[in-house]
Amino acid sequence: MDLPTALIIGGALLLSAALLIGIGLLHRRIIRQRERDGHSGPESAALLRRLGLAGLVRNASGITTWSQAGRNLTAARTDGRGWATSRGGGNIRIETRLTISGLSYSLVAVQLPAALPTINIVKGGRIERSDLDVESARFNSARDVMADDDQLAHAVLSPNVIALLQDLPKDLTVQVIGDHLISFRRGRPDPAEVRDRAATLIAIAEAIPDFVFRRG
Fold it and tell me: Quick one: which of 141, 173, 170, 168 has its CA closest to 56?
């Protein structure tokens, strides 16, 4: 092989190697960007459907599931948070919905014994106006409650449940959606905080009176 041919072949090999390295770096960059954006494909969509959050939360990533104290739990990072209610009967239904996107939230969910009508317990504010009050003035001033069924919401919000909710950080939401008790908190998931919040959600779930799961 003469020198010019060797140089051409060597240059081609170097170019091929550079292209492969470039493609690899681009692939890693795309994966990291998708992780930052919270995209996780079918797994994300399946989780949001299972938790009743489809249409309220865009994406979930870093999904983790485990069992604790005999209950199934899920944690994930989400793009935004949301809540919705549907009130009324017959031909008259009033639907309310609020969603926040473009911000990272830490989600923790614990499975309940049975599905319940939706209850959203969020930080009090001008936009999120409470549908009902409970006997605790402290709770009423700190939290707004939007529910599909006020009577059942009052039953769920027993004194023991309210006592646990009052001690939660103000930026933390608690929602009953289907057969899950769900909580959002602003920011990326922190393992220690997720573990502590999971224990608190389990305590709240166990404080809900048994009869509400046997209604009807």
Answer: 173
> Domain range holding 94?
42-214
At 120, the amino acid letter reads N
Measured in whole angstroms, the distance separating CA 215 from the mean position of its chain's CA atoms is: 27
Tell me: the pLDDT tens digits for 74-111? 999 999 999 888 876 656 667 777 888 889 999 999 99
Q: Cα dist. 10→1, 3, 108, 199 in Å?
A: 12, 10, 55, 62
DSSP characters over 128-142: S--S---S-HHHHHH
pTM listed for this prediction: 0.77
Q: Let me know whether 152 and 194 are in one domain.
A: yes
What is d(CA 133, CA 144) in angstroms, rounded to the nearest whole number?
8
* Dist CA 73 CA 211 (whole Å): 23
d(CA 183, CA 108): 5
- Please give the DSSP secondary-structure letter assigned to residue 54: B
* H or E element in which residue 183 lies: strand 172-186
The answer on 111 and 67 residing in a single domain is: yes
